[in-house]
Amino acid sequence: MDAEQVEEKILSEAKAEADKTKKQAQDKEAAEQAKLDEQLTDYKNQTEMLAQKAANAEKLHLLAAARMDMAKQFLAEKRKILDEVFAQAREKLLNLPDEQYRKLITNLMLKAAETGDEEVIVDTNEKRIDQNLIDQVNQRLGPDGKRNLKLSDKRQSFGGGFILKRGKIKNNVSFDVLIAQARRGLEIELAKELFED
Fold first, then answer.
1. CA-CA distance, 103 to 128, in Å (whole number)?
2. Tell me: the pLDDT tens digits for 29-86?
3. DSSP letter assigned to residue 146
4. Which region, left, alpha or beta, applies to residue 159 given φ > 0 means left and ψ of -120 to 50 means alpha?
5. What is the pLDDT of residues 119-130, one digit of tens each?
């Protein structure tokens, strides 16, 4: 499974959860609206014209407050779902079978390598990105001198993925960074959806 397929799957799952949460929020808002309408009907029956105007003002206030509360709850649920989905996605990436993991890392390295002479920094617990994998990537980088990636002796603690370093320039391709990028794109879509209504 390549990075694009993983990202599409993550986005698809997050979108499905968001749609489900939105439907629940809309159903709850409809129930609140019905309850408020029933209360306001009682007010109308018990008051004269002045009281009726006050009831309408109260209805608008209550509806605005209810909508605001529902929007806050809806947004909080979306964030909670996103947190869960992206935490699960990170775990799935870290627990990919060795062959799939190495294929994913190879594809990410091929895309991320700019000059081909970068140093590859891996996580302190990384065991699957080794010199053999780096050699395979170097073979696929091409004949124009872009075949000199080397595994760094230095390791950092950042989870899965890797960092390509050339001088002072670092290209962070850790899973946390990739997931954060995917999440930003999804949050923009969700914000548009939330504020369109």
1. 11
2. 888 888 878 877 766 666 566 666 766 788 888 888 888 888 788 778 877 887 888 8
3. -
4. left
5. 999 999 999 999
The reply to whether 141 falls in a domain is yes
Verify that 82 and 11 share a domain, yes or no.
yes
* 181 belongs to a structural domain: no
pLDDT digits (tens, 9 = 90+) for 151-184: 999 999 988 899 999 999 999 999 999 998 888 8
104 with 143, same domain: the answer is yes
Largest Cα–Cα separation, the chain: 88
Instruction: Report if pTM > 0.70.
Output: no
The residue out of 61, 94, 127 marking a domain boundary is: 94
Handedness of CA 66, 67, 70, 71 (dihedral sign): negative
147 with 138: CB under 8 angstroms? yes
User: From CA 182, how far away is CA 10, in angstroms rounded?
Assistant: 8
Residue range(s) defining the domain that contains residue 35 = 3-94
What total of structural domains would you count in the chain?
2
179 in a structural domain: no
